[in-house]
Design brief:
It is found in: Nucleus. This protein has 478 residues and is mostly helical. The protein contains 17 helices and six strands. Helices cover 33% and strands 5% of the residues. The structure holds a DNA duplex (14 and 14 nucleotides).
Length: 478
DNA sequence: TACCCGGAAGGTAT
DNA sequence: GATACCTTCCGGGT
């Protein structure tokens, strides 16, 4: 029986963080992926390395990396079993910890206590110490121009390491995002790192064979949102750990390969939008892009930086981890509902590095789409919108503004292809029918040849659609 | 109060 | 510099 690690300075917590940590698809993983500096360093970055490189680290199973944030799901299990033994903890329900190291590190003390009654504090403290030590070591590494955008599976050894961000700056000029700890964390880190760049998604193939994909067969590291939701259903943030890199810091994949973040396979990556996003990591995105999104892809890559594409990615997440935020009401007709407007806006804000994003602003962007016939509002239903364009079509239209002169294609594919995602909070069957009618009332361009699956909105399915230009129609708005 | 709308101005990237 | 695509702010309506 070891001494239980003593309490550490608490990291900021809030109900939002708690929410983030567990029930929401917006899992902590994404934050680490995007802001891999590590939350534990926030506010502590200026501190000297904390505890004496504590014993636990040396006593950890040899298979475990020193930095718990790089642990895979299996590593987490190993750690928990080790902790059980080491600290004579009550048996831990491993099912409650179907997550990778990054995810478990983001759990609050309360979260851990809930998942491991009687042991949460111990686990929390051990993890915090490990994280802190890892941070300390990394701070001591020479800084590099590499943007913190990249993930940091760096080995803790100072002798071999991939590019390392300057950890010292993390705590400076913090400008907390008020609404939630997660957002605060994002704000902190983004303010320091300018790194909100979404990593490219590994190819589906790259994910194959990974045991963690059982519940999430298609992972693609994508946006922050694509990370496994820690909703208890086994989000698999750990995917990235095995697939994106190995723990030695060597990998065929770029270090920031977030394979843990799952979004539909052909989903585009979020390309850096600003030079500063890539300034620190020359070649990073190019390399990644080449790896995961080879040029042979016939599909224009919108990279998830466009709102409609972003929404599509969330809607079409194979694991349906974002249905707490946005979900199809009728996938066939392109009708979806924003289940959590504020949360979705937050995600979008993080995606775009606009931390003050809210639903009001995001909805303004959605209304912008009215003009170009990408979206329309489902009348009478709050937070319900309808895609008027197939995503493939959109991606193949170089100039979206041209859509102003094009009527919606109004695809209405056979309904049997893709099961609709039902919105959990409220039954929508009747609404779906209503929406279908609503959909039908629009002038419909049927001059479309569809081959293969006729999923209107699934960007994860390659639907070859030949769209003939539609006769101009009067703008629906304006 | 929240949602919804759309004008206007501005920012950033291409 | 032009353009696209928002972002931000706002006044107003429901």
């Amino acid at each position: 029986m070891k001494l239980v690690p003593g309490p550490l300075p608490p990291i900021p917590t809030s109900s939002s963080m708690d929410r983030l940590a567990l029930p929401l698809p917006f899992s902590p993983d994404s934050l680490f992926w995007r802001y891999p500096l590590g939350f534990a360093s926030i506010g502590q970055a200026q501190q000297p390395p904390s505890s004496p490189l504590f014993d636990y680290k040396s006593q950890l199973p040899s298979s475990l990396a020193s930095d718990p944030r790089v642990w895979s799901r299996e590593d987490v299990v190993s750690f928990l079993r080790w902790a059980e033994r080491e600290f004579d903890l009550q048996p831990i329900d491993l099912d409650m910890f179907q997550m990778n190291g990054k995810a478990i590190c983001l759990l609050t003390r309360t979260d851990l206590a809930e998942r491991a009654p009687g042991s949460g504090d111990v686990l929390y403290n051990v993890l915090q110490i490990l994280v802190r030590e890892a941070n300390s070591l990394q701070r001591m590494l020479p800084s590099s121009p590499v943007t913190p955008t990249s993930r940091h599976p760096y080995p803790l050894s100072p002798h071999s390491h991939p590019p390392t961000p300057n950890w010292n700056i993390i705590a400076q000029n913090a400008d907390p995002f008020q609404s939630s700890h997660a957002a605060s964390l994002a704000a902190h880190l983004m303010a320091q790192s300018n790194s909100v760049t979404l990593s490219p998604a590994p190819s589906v193939d790259s994910q194959a064979g990974s045991p963690q994909h059982a519940d999430n067969p298609q992972t693609f590291g994508h946006s922050i949102f694509s990370m496994g939701g820690s909703n208890g259903s086994g989000s698999n943030p750990s995917d990235s750990d095995e697939d994106g890199y190995d723990k030695t810091g060597q990998s065929g994949s770029p270090p920031n390969t977030p394979s843990a973040y799952s979004l539909p396979p052909p989903l585009p990556t979020m390309a850096p939008r600003s030079p500063k996003e890539v300034a620190g990591s020359p070649g990073m995105f190019k390399a990644v892009g080449r790896e995961f999104f080879p040029n042979e892809s016939p599909e224009p890559n919108t990279n998830g930086r466009l709102l409609w594409d972003f929404l599509q990615q969330l809607l079409n997440d194979p694991a349906q981890r974002y249905t707490n935020y946005i979900a199809w009401k009728n996938r066939d007709t392109g009708v979806f509902k924003i289940v959590d407007p504020a949360g979705l806006a937050k995600l979008w804000g993080i995606q775009k590095n606009h931390l003050s994003m809210n639903y009001d602003k995001m909805s303004r962007a959605l209304r912008y789409y009215y003009r170009v016939n990408i979206l329309r509002k489902v009348q009478g239903e709050r937070h319900c919108y309808q895609f008027l364009r197939n995503p493939n079509e959109l991606k193949n239209i170089k100039n979206i503004s041209l859509l102003r002169q094009m009527s919606p294609t109004n695809l209405k594919p056979p309904a049997q292809i893709v099961p609709n995602v039902t919105i959990k909070p409220e039954p929508v069957e009747a609404e779906s029918e209503a929406n279908r009618d609503d959909y039908d009332e629009k002038p419909t361009d049927l001059s479309i040849t569809m081959e293969g699956p006729t999923d209107l909105s699934s960007s994860s399915r390659h639907v070859n659609i030949i769209c003939s230009p539609d006769p101009p129609i009067p703008p629906q708005h304006h």
